[in-house]
Specification:
Blueprint (H helix, E strand, L loop, with lengths): L1 H19 L8 E8 L8 H7 L2 H4 L2 E8 L2 H10 L4 E6 H9 L4 E9 L4 E5 L14 E4 L5 H13 L4 E4 L3 H9 L6 E3 L5 H6 L2 E6 L4 H4 L2 E8 H6 L1 H18 L3 H11 L3 H11 L13 H10 L9 H7 L9 H13 L1
Parallel strand pairs: 1-2, 1-3, 6-7
Antiparallel strand pairs: 3-10, 4-10, 5-8, 5-9
Protein backbone atom coordinates (compact mmCIF):
# COMPACT_ATOMS: atom_id res chain seq x y z
CA UNK A 1 0.00 0.00 0.00
CA UNK A 2 2.80 2.39 0.98
CA UNK A 3 4.66 1.48 -2.19
CA UNK A 4 1.61 2.27 -4.31
CA UNK A 5 1.27 5.64 -2.58
CA UNK A 6 4.95 6.34 -3.23
CA UNK A 7 4.47 5.56 -6.91
CA UNK A 8 1.48 7.91 -7.16
CA UNK A 9 3.34 10.69 -5.39
CA UNK A 10 6.32 10.18 -7.73
CA UNK A 11 4.00 10.48 -10.77
CA UNK A 12 2.52 13.68 -9.39
CA UNK A 13 5.97 15.16 -8.79
CA UNK A 14 7.01 14.34 -12.37
CA UNK A 15 3.77 15.91 -13.66
CA UNK A 16 4.40 19.04 -11.62
CA UNK A 17 7.97 19.33 -12.90
CA UNK A 18 6.68 18.90 -16.43
CA UNK A 19 4.17 21.65 -15.97
CA UNK A 20 6.75 24.09 -14.62
CA UNK A 21 9.06 23.34 -17.53
CA UNK A 22 6.37 23.97 -20.14
CA UNK A 23 7.10 27.03 -22.30
CA UNK A 24 5.48 30.18 -20.95
CA UNK A 25 3.01 32.15 -23.02
CA UNK A 26 4.60 34.86 -25.10
CA UNK A 27 4.21 38.45 -23.93
CA UNK A 28 3.08 39.15 -27.49
CA UNK A 29 0.13 36.76 -27.41
CA UNK A 30 -2.22 38.98 -29.43
CA UNK A 31 -5.97 38.53 -29.33
CA UNK A 32 -8.15 40.39 -31.83
CA UNK A 33 -11.26 41.61 -30.04
CA UNK A 34 -14.36 43.00 -31.77
CA UNK A 35 -16.65 44.97 -29.50
CA UNK A 36 -19.70 47.20 -29.60
CA UNK A 37 -20.15 50.82 -28.59
CA UNK A 38 -16.81 52.33 -27.72
CA UNK A 39 -16.89 54.52 -24.62
CA UNK A 40 -19.66 52.82 -22.63
CA UNK A 41 -19.07 51.38 -19.16
CA UNK A 42 -20.33 47.86 -19.83
CA UNK A 43 -17.90 47.42 -22.76
CA UNK A 44 -14.91 49.33 -21.36
CA UNK A 45 -13.05 46.54 -19.51
CA UNK A 46 -10.71 45.52 -22.38
CA UNK A 47 -9.57 49.08 -23.12
CA UNK A 48 -9.27 50.09 -19.46
CA UNK A 49 -7.58 46.82 -18.50
CA UNK A 50 -5.06 47.15 -21.29
CA UNK A 51 -4.27 50.73 -20.23
CA UNK A 52 -3.81 49.58 -16.63
CA UNK A 53 -1.44 46.76 -17.62
CA UNK A 54 -3.75 44.02 -16.36
CA UNK A 55 -3.90 42.09 -19.65
CA UNK A 56 -0.15 42.46 -20.10
CA UNK A 57 0.34 40.83 -16.70
CA UNK A 58 -1.43 37.78 -18.12
CA UNK A 59 0.66 37.78 -21.31
CA UNK A 60 -2.14 39.20 -23.47
CA UNK A 61 -2.06 42.08 -25.92
CA UNK A 62 -5.44 43.18 -27.28
CA UNK A 63 -6.06 44.41 -30.81
CA UNK A 64 -9.35 46.24 -30.23
CA UNK A 65 -11.88 47.22 -32.87
CA UNK A 66 -15.46 48.41 -32.52
CA UNK A 67 -18.60 47.94 -34.61
CA UNK A 68 -21.99 49.62 -34.47
CA UNK A 69 -23.87 46.50 -35.55
CA UNK A 70 -23.67 43.25 -33.59
CA UNK A 71 -23.99 41.35 -36.89
CA UNK A 72 -20.53 42.67 -37.83
CA UNK A 73 -19.08 41.34 -34.57
CA UNK A 74 -20.57 37.89 -35.16
CA UNK A 75 -19.34 37.97 -38.78
CA UNK A 76 -15.79 38.81 -37.66
CA UNK A 77 -15.76 35.95 -35.15
CA UNK A 78 -17.36 33.52 -37.57
CA UNK A 79 -14.77 34.26 -40.27
CA UNK A 80 -11.81 34.34 -37.90
CA UNK A 81 -11.11 38.07 -38.37
CA UNK A 82 -11.65 38.40 -34.60
CA UNK A 83 -10.71 35.93 -31.88
CA UNK A 84 -13.31 37.25 -29.45
CA UNK A 85 -16.57 39.15 -29.87
CA UNK A 86 -17.81 41.22 -26.93
CA UNK A 87 -21.21 42.57 -25.89
CA UNK A 88 -23.09 40.31 -28.28
CA UNK A 89 -26.75 39.95 -27.40
CA UNK A 90 -27.37 36.49 -25.98
CA UNK A 91 -30.31 35.90 -28.30
CA UNK A 92 -28.23 37.04 -31.28
CA UNK A 93 -25.52 34.53 -30.32
CA UNK A 94 -28.13 31.78 -29.96
CA UNK A 95 -29.62 32.72 -33.34
CA UNK A 96 -26.21 32.59 -35.07
CA UNK A 97 -25.37 29.21 -33.52
CA UNK A 98 -28.81 27.76 -34.31
CA UNK A 99 -28.38 28.61 -37.99
CA UNK A 100 -24.93 27.08 -38.26
CA UNK A 101 -22.35 29.66 -37.20
CA UNK A 102 -19.36 27.92 -35.53
CA UNK A 103 -19.43 30.19 -32.49
CA UNK A 104 -19.18 29.42 -28.78
CA UNK A 105 -20.14 31.51 -25.75
CA UNK A 106 -17.12 31.70 -23.45
CA UNK A 107 -18.27 34.29 -20.93
CA UNK A 108 -20.78 36.96 -20.01
CA UNK A 109 -20.59 40.72 -20.47
CA UNK A 110 -23.81 41.79 -18.81
CA UNK A 111 -26.79 40.42 -16.88
CA UNK A 112 -30.00 42.37 -16.54
CA UNK A 113 -30.96 45.48 -18.44
CA UNK A 114 -29.91 49.13 -18.45
CA UNK A 115 -33.18 50.39 -19.90
CA UNK A 116 -35.13 52.84 -17.81
CA UNK A 117 -38.23 54.98 -18.23
CA UNK A 118 -38.40 58.61 -17.24
CA UNK A 119 -40.55 61.73 -17.31
CA UNK A 120 -39.87 65.44 -17.33
CA UNK A 121 -39.59 67.10 -13.93
CA UNK A 122 -42.95 68.80 -14.48
CA UNK A 123 -44.83 65.54 -15.19
CA UNK A 124 -47.50 64.41 -12.70
CA UNK A 125 -46.42 60.77 -13.26
CA UNK A 126 -44.59 59.50 -10.17
CA UNK A 127 -44.59 55.69 -10.41
CA UNK A 128 -45.61 52.86 -12.73
CA UNK A 129 -49.06 52.97 -11.14
CA UNK A 130 -49.57 56.27 -12.95
CA UNK A 131 -48.81 54.72 -16.37
CA UNK A 132 -52.43 53.67 -17.03
CA UNK A 133 -53.74 55.28 -20.20
CA UNK A 134 -50.35 56.80 -21.05
CA UNK A 135 -48.02 56.43 -24.04
CA UNK A 136 -44.77 54.64 -23.15
CA UNK A 137 -41.68 54.87 -25.35
CA UNK A 138 -39.39 52.12 -26.59
CA UNK A 139 -36.68 52.24 -29.26
CA UNK A 140 -37.88 50.01 -32.10
CA UNK A 141 -39.46 46.65 -32.80
CA UNK A 142 -37.06 43.87 -31.82
CA UNK A 143 -35.05 46.08 -29.46
CA UNK A 144 -34.27 45.21 -25.85
CA UNK A 145 -36.31 48.22 -24.75
CA UNK A 146 -39.37 46.72 -26.46
CA UNK A 147 -38.84 43.32 -24.83
CA UNK A 148 -38.35 44.95 -21.44
CA UNK A 149 -41.39 47.18 -21.86
CA UNK A 150 -43.58 44.20 -22.80
CA UNK A 151 -42.31 42.18 -19.81
CA UNK A 152 -42.78 45.15 -17.53
CA UNK A 153 -46.31 45.92 -18.66
CA UNK A 154 -47.38 42.25 -18.58
CA UNK A 155 -46.29 42.01 -14.97
CA UNK A 156 -47.84 45.26 -13.78
CA UNK A 157 -50.79 45.20 -16.17
CA UNK A 158 -51.36 48.93 -16.64
CA UNK A 159 -53.31 49.65 -19.83
CA UNK A 160 -50.79 51.59 -21.87
CA UNK A 161 -49.86 52.27 -25.48
CA UNK A 162 -46.28 51.41 -26.46
CA UNK A 163 -44.75 53.80 -29.01
CA UNK A 164 -41.53 53.31 -31.00
CA UNK A 165 -39.59 56.57 -30.62
CA UNK A 166 -36.07 55.74 -31.82
CA UNK A 167 -32.76 56.30 -30.06
CA UNK A 168 -32.56 58.02 -26.64
CA UNK A 169 -31.85 61.52 -28.03
CA UNK A 170 -34.80 61.32 -30.43
CA UNK A 171 -36.98 59.97 -27.63
CA UNK A 172 -36.10 62.90 -25.38
CA UNK A 173 -37.08 65.34 -28.15
CA UNK A 174 -40.45 63.63 -28.57
CA UNK A 175 -41.03 63.62 -24.81
CA UNK A 176 -40.16 67.32 -24.62
CA UNK A 177 -42.66 67.97 -27.46
CA UNK A 178 -45.37 66.09 -25.48
CA UNK A 179 -45.64 63.41 -28.17
CA UNK A 180 -45.22 60.66 -25.55
CA UNK A 181 -45.85 60.63 -21.82
CA UNK A 182 -42.95 58.45 -20.68
CA UNK A 183 -39.55 58.28 -22.39
CA UNK A 184 -37.00 55.49 -22.40
CA UNK A 185 -33.22 55.59 -22.29
CA UNK A 186 -30.13 53.66 -21.26
CA UNK A 187 -26.99 55.14 -19.71
CA UNK A 188 -24.89 57.07 -20.36
CA UNK A 189 -27.72 59.02 -22.02
CA UNK A 190 -29.74 60.99 -19.51
CA UNK A 191 -27.48 60.61 -16.49
CA UNK A 192 -26.51 64.28 -16.71
CA UNK A 193 -30.18 65.26 -17.04
CA UNK A 194 -31.03 63.20 -13.97
CA UNK A 195 -28.21 64.94 -12.09
CA UNK A 196 -29.48 68.35 -13.19
CA UNK A 197 -33.09 67.54 -12.24
CA UNK A 198 -34.40 67.89 -15.81
CA UNK A 199 -35.84 64.36 -15.87
CA UNK A 200 -36.96 61.90 -13.21
CA UNK A 201 -36.63 58.11 -13.40
CA UNK A 202 -39.95 56.38 -12.72
CA UNK A 203 -39.09 52.76 -13.59
CA UNK A 204 -36.11 50.55 -14.36
CA UNK A 205 -36.16 47.28 -16.26
CA UNK A 206 -33.98 45.77 -13.54
CA UNK A 207 -36.76 46.38 -11.01
CA UNK A 208 -38.16 43.09 -12.30
CA UNK A 209 -36.37 39.87 -11.24
CA UNK A 210 -37.33 38.21 -14.54
CA UNK A 211 -35.31 40.83 -16.41
CA UNK A 212 -32.57 41.30 -13.81
CA UNK A 213 -31.74 37.59 -13.64
CA UNK A 214 -31.00 37.04 -17.34
CA UNK A 215 -27.63 37.30 -19.07
CA UNK A 216 -28.29 39.60 -22.02
CA UNK A 217 -24.74 40.12 -23.31
CA UNK A 218 -22.04 37.51 -23.90
CA UNK A 219 -18.49 36.97 -25.17
CA UNK A 220 -18.14 34.68 -28.16
CA UNK A 221 -15.33 32.97 -30.00
CA UNK A 222 -14.98 30.69 -32.99
CA UNK A 223 -15.05 26.94 -32.27
CA UNK A 224 -11.69 26.61 -33.99
CA UNK A 225 -10.18 29.40 -31.88
CA UNK A 226 -11.51 27.76 -28.71
CA UNK A 227 -9.83 24.50 -29.65
CA UNK A 228 -6.48 25.99 -30.68
CA UNK A 229 -6.12 28.95 -28.30
CA UNK A 230 -7.96 27.91 -25.18
CA UNK A 231 -5.10 28.87 -22.87
CA UNK A 232 -5.08 32.40 -24.30
CA UNK A 233 -8.84 32.66 -23.83
CA UNK A 234 -8.53 31.47 -20.23
CA UNK A 235 -5.96 34.17 -19.53
CA UNK A 236 -8.15 36.74 -21.29
CA UNK A 237 -11.05 35.87 -18.97
CA UNK A 238 -8.77 36.07 -15.93
CA UNK A 239 -7.56 39.53 -16.94
CA UNK A 240 -11.10 40.62 -17.80
CA UNK A 241 -12.37 39.58 -14.35
CA UNK A 242 -9.48 41.37 -12.62
CA UNK A 243 -10.24 44.48 -14.66
CA UNK A 244 -13.87 44.46 -13.49
CA UNK A 245 -12.64 44.24 -9.88
CA UNK A 246 -10.31 47.19 -10.53
CA UNK A 247 -13.07 49.25 -12.17
CA UNK A 248 -15.08 49.05 -8.93
CA UNK A 249 -12.23 49.60 -6.47
CA UNK A 250 -9.80 52.15 -7.89
CA UNK A 251 -10.79 55.81 -8.56
CA UNK A 252 -8.22 55.85 -11.38
CA UNK A 253 -10.62 53.65 -13.38
CA UNK A 254 -13.26 56.39 -13.24
CA UNK A 255 -10.72 58.98 -14.37
CA UNK A 256 -9.57 56.87 -17.32
CA UNK A 257 -13.12 56.02 -18.37
CA UNK A 258 -13.99 59.71 -18.23
CA UNK A 259 -11.14 60.40 -20.64
CA UNK A 260 -12.20 57.80 -23.22
CA UNK A 261 -15.94 58.54 -22.98
CA UNK A 262 -15.87 62.34 -22.64
CA UNK A 263 -18.14 62.06 -19.59
CA UNK A 264 -17.23 63.81 -16.34
CA UNK A 265 -15.88 61.73 -13.46
CA UNK A 266 -18.82 62.74 -11.27
CA UNK A 267 -21.39 61.55 -13.78
CA UNK A 268 -19.31 58.45 -14.48
CA UNK A 269 -19.34 57.52 -10.79
CA UNK A 270 -23.07 58.14 -10.48
CA UNK A 271 -23.71 56.08 -13.60
CA UNK A 272 -21.57 53.20 -12.30
CA UNK A 273 -23.02 53.22 -8.80
CA UNK A 274 -26.65 53.74 -9.80
CA UNK A 275 -26.97 51.69 -12.98
CA UNK A 276 -24.12 49.16 -12.98
CA UNK A 277 -23.84 47.01 -9.86
CA UNK A 278 -20.66 44.97 -10.16
CA UNK A 279 -22.60 41.69 -10.23
CA UNK A 280 -24.12 42.78 -13.53
CA UNK A 281 -20.75 42.58 -15.30
CA UNK A 282 -19.22 39.39 -13.88
CA UNK A 283 -17.76 37.48 -16.85
CA UNK A 284 -17.87 33.91 -15.53
CA UNK A 285 -21.58 33.67 -14.75
CA UNK A 286 -24.41 32.93 -17.21
CA UNK A 287 -27.85 33.30 -15.62
CA UNK A 288 -31.40 32.71 -16.82
CA UNK A 289 -30.31 30.95 -20.01
CA UNK A 290 -33.45 28.82 -20.21
CA UNK A 291 -35.58 31.98 -20.04
CA UNK A 292 -33.50 33.61 -22.76
CA UNK A 293 -33.93 30.54 -24.98
CA UNK A 294 -37.69 30.60 -24.41
CA UNK A 295 -37.75 34.27 -25.36
CA UNK A 296 -35.69 33.51 -28.47
CA UNK A 297 -38.36 31.06 -29.63
CA UNK A 298 -41.25 33.42 -28.86
CA UNK A 299 -39.52 36.31 -30.62
CA UNK A 300 -38.66 34.10 -33.63
CA UNK A 301 -34.89 34.17 -33.23
CA UNK A 302 -34.94 30.36 -33.39
CA UNK A 303 -37.60 27.85 -34.42
CA UNK A 304 -37.41 25.56 -31.41
CA UNK A 305 -35.61 25.36 -28.08
CA UNK A 306 -32.02 24.14 -27.97
CA UNK A 307 -31.36 20.63 -26.67
CA UNK A 308 -29.09 20.02 -23.70
CA UNK A 309 -26.42 18.80 -26.08
CA UNK A 310 -26.66 21.99 -28.12
CA UNK A 311 -26.51 24.16 -24.99
CA UNK A 312 -23.41 22.35 -23.71
CA UNK A 313 -21.76 22.78 -27.11
CA UNK A 314 -22.68 26.46 -27.40
CA UNK A 315 -21.89 27.57 -23.85
CA UNK A 316 -18.32 26.75 -22.82
CA UNK A 317 -17.22 29.16 -20.09
CA UNK A 318 -13.43 29.14 -19.99
CA UNK A 319 -11.96 29.36 -16.50
CA UNK A 320 -8.66 28.18 -15.00
CA UNK A 321 -10.51 25.65 -12.83
CA UNK A 322 -12.06 23.96 -15.85
CA UNK A 323 -9.15 24.15 -18.25
CA UNK A 324 -5.58 22.96 -18.72
CA UNK A 325 -3.28 20.38 -17.16
CA UNK A 326 -2.89 22.27 -13.88
CA UNK A 327 -6.55 21.58 -12.98
CA UNK A 328 -5.99 17.86 -13.66
CA UNK A 329 -2.99 17.86 -11.35
CA UNK A 330 -5.01 19.58 -8.61
CA UNK A 331 -7.82 17.04 -8.86
CA UNK A 332 -5.32 14.14 -8.57
CA UNK A 333 -3.63 15.85 -5.65
CA UNK A 334 -6.94 16.40 -3.86
CA UNK A 335 -7.86 12.71 -4.16
CA UNK A 336 -4.78 11.76 -2.12
CA UNK A 337 -5.87 13.87 0.81
Amino acid sequence: MNRMKDVIQFVLIIAAVGLTSMPKASAEDVLKVAGAQHGVWESAAPELGQQAGIFKKHGIVLDLRYHEDVKEIISDVRSGKADIGLAVGTMSAIHAYYFGAPIRIIGATMAGSLNYWYVLKSSPIQTVKDFAGKTIAYERNGSSSQYDAIDFMKKLRPKVKLVATGRPAATFERLSANEVDVGWAAPPFGVDKIEQGIIRVVARADDMPRIRNKTVGVMITNANTLQKRKDSLVRFLQAYGETIDWMYSDPVALQRFSEISDVSEGITQRMRDEFFPKEMLLPDRIVGLNEVIKDAVVLDYIRKRLSRRQISELVQIVTPERSGPWSIFKRLRDRLR
